[in-house]
Amino acid sequence: MLLKRLxxxxxxxxxxxxxxxxxxxxxxxxxDELIVDRLGNVIAYKKGKEDSKKLMITAHMDEVGLMxxxxxxxxxxxxxxxxxxxxxxxxxxxxxxxxxKILGVIGAKPIHLxxxxxxxxxxxxxxxxxxxxxxxKEEAERLVxxxxxxxxxxxxxxxxxxxxxxxxxxxxxxxxLLIELIKETKDIGFYGVFTVMEEIGLVGAGPAxxxxxxxxxxILEGTLCYELPNMDEHLVPTSLNKGPAISIMDRTTLxxxxxxxRIKKIAEKNNIPYQYRKTSMGGNDSGRIHTTKEGSITxxxxxxxxxxxxxxxxxxxxxxxxTYNLLMAxxxxxxxxxx
Amino acid sequence: MDTKEFLKKLSNGSSVSGFEYGLSDLITSSFKDHTDQxxxxxxxxxxxxxxxxxxxxxxxIMIAAHMDEIGLMVKHIEDNGFIRFTNVxxxxxxxxxxxxxxxxxKEDLFGVIGSKPPHLQEPTExxxxxxxxxxxIDLGYPKEKVLELVSIGDPITIxxxxxxxxxxxxxxxxxxxxxxxxxxxxxxxELSNLKHExxxxxxxxxxxxxxxxxxxxxxxSINPDIGIAIDVGFGSTPELPKGATIDxxxxxxxxxxxxxxxxxxxxLIEIAKQYNIPYQLEVxxxxxxxxxxxxxxxxxxxxxxxxxxxxxxxxxxVEIIDMEDxxxxxxxxxxxxxxxxxxxxxxxxxx
Lengths: 339, 351
Description:
- Chain A is of the alpha+beta class.
- Chain A has helices at residues 2-8, 17-27, 116-119, 137-143, 169-184, 205-212, 257-269, 286-289, 317-335; strands at 33-36, 42-46, 55-60, 65-71, 77-82, 93-97, 102-106, 130-131, 149-152, 157-159, 163-166, 190-195, 216-225, 245-247, 275-277, 297-306, 313-316.
- In chain A, a hairpin with a 4-residue loop joins β6 and β7 (102-106).
- Chain B is of the alpha+beta class.
- In chain B, α1 packs antiparallel against α4 and α4 (175-191) crosses α8 (323-339).
- Chains A and B meet through β7 of A and β7, β10 and β11 of B.
């Protein structure tokens, strides 16, 4: 299954090769042009009958993770974070290191040897390390290099009521949607762009947009979902099972209102549930894309993901399906020249 | 069955204190071919007797390793189906954020312990540990379905697959003290090739993590001449004080302190030296945090020993041990048992 393959592949920002290879293999027979640019972005073009406007659909390939910074005398590995990770989710987790996916764990001091006040403080990254079971520094050095990328060891699991648990749903869910769009559409001309290094500062998106020079862009994402019982409704950024989340404003973009209203109407016309992304925190590739060259119009459509940026992200298959349906409906309007 | 394979099954299985029955079949079926009698007492302790090789043995040695593990328990079900929970045994709440869990309801249900996305956090939040009472388990079902499948009081375990690391090291959940059960298993196999006068009672005890309760009742019923607890010891890591730990891969820790009978301890060290089995000393002046503390004060007092398998990251779901340490602990245990005779026992126990 595509989303399983994509989420179980390692693709920490700057090291997207495994993900890129899967994407290329999936789409190469369905596009008219395909290049990998100097940064590692995958830029695919699918010809249409006649394209009124230049449409670009993007999804970033990378995920948050860790990077090895040092190997200590005991053979334990020190690391830093790549992208926005809450250090508190790292403790007591298995991870996979480097190309050979060496298994390691991030341990923690036994509770028995702690003072009570220690529990109340989060452990800092510099207090944590990865243990691969090496007996000493030499053994660790044979297996691991400084600079090796580290990803969470987390399998794709389906559970509950049509839900999926996996790592890197932000943003393999966007990649999966874009791959499906590329494979399933006919006679609709658009650029499908898979970007690198979104999580470390929207690095790939600018150069990709510069090359494509789109009139309109749709950014596909996995986005924040957080809904505790008794939370004030206006504080809930998105909810699971309420359909694709359409962005209004975040830290990187004030999304074009007219285009957003157009998408809303398309959803309503096709009876596709949707929701607004009700937080202005976070951001995505749109920030670079809409300010590249003379500027262009963007919208961001996201699948809500609980526990985002953790090894146990959760999304709904229903939301995925509804997001896919909305995108197909948008493309069909675009085909008619009515976008 | 290979000891590592047995340990894998023990570790992947679930046996939260008070709910140890999930492992009973695995343990009894693994021990039955090499023991003479297996009973289960009222609390759920599994007592497996391997008779001495002499016809009329009159010495009883009890080996205890606890089969229970720390875990969580369902406390409340929220309107949106999320589960609130508490801990069974000592759990650092910081080690369970973002974990996958199995809620053992009417059926085993997969869930995850949720976390707030970093994007929505205040800068001050990030340095505070999240309290257990602020965490939820997400089963992905609406309340009605959760109520159908889950009851208040159901046990919960962290979902973690036992795996090999480099060399002979392995990682998994609840190696505390399933490593101890593995040591008993391996020692039982060793003993099958050795002469031993003593009747050996291998006991997989219950409820150690909540107060060594199984050890009290099983020691009472067996009334052994010698009690030996097999548990795990703090494996050394950089942040821990040297004196409080034992090193990985350097053999069992032999406990020294008030909980331990000095004459028997000297014999244990003597045997280790005699057979070239690596060992380390683990200093615990007061009662140990093992079944040994219960054994020692049962009935009129039982001479007690403790052997520890070095283990890193105790009470997390990524505990690490070295299989070589399991082997050496079992070897030392078996040779020690074999060395005890009617003739030398009284002398060893004499103050």
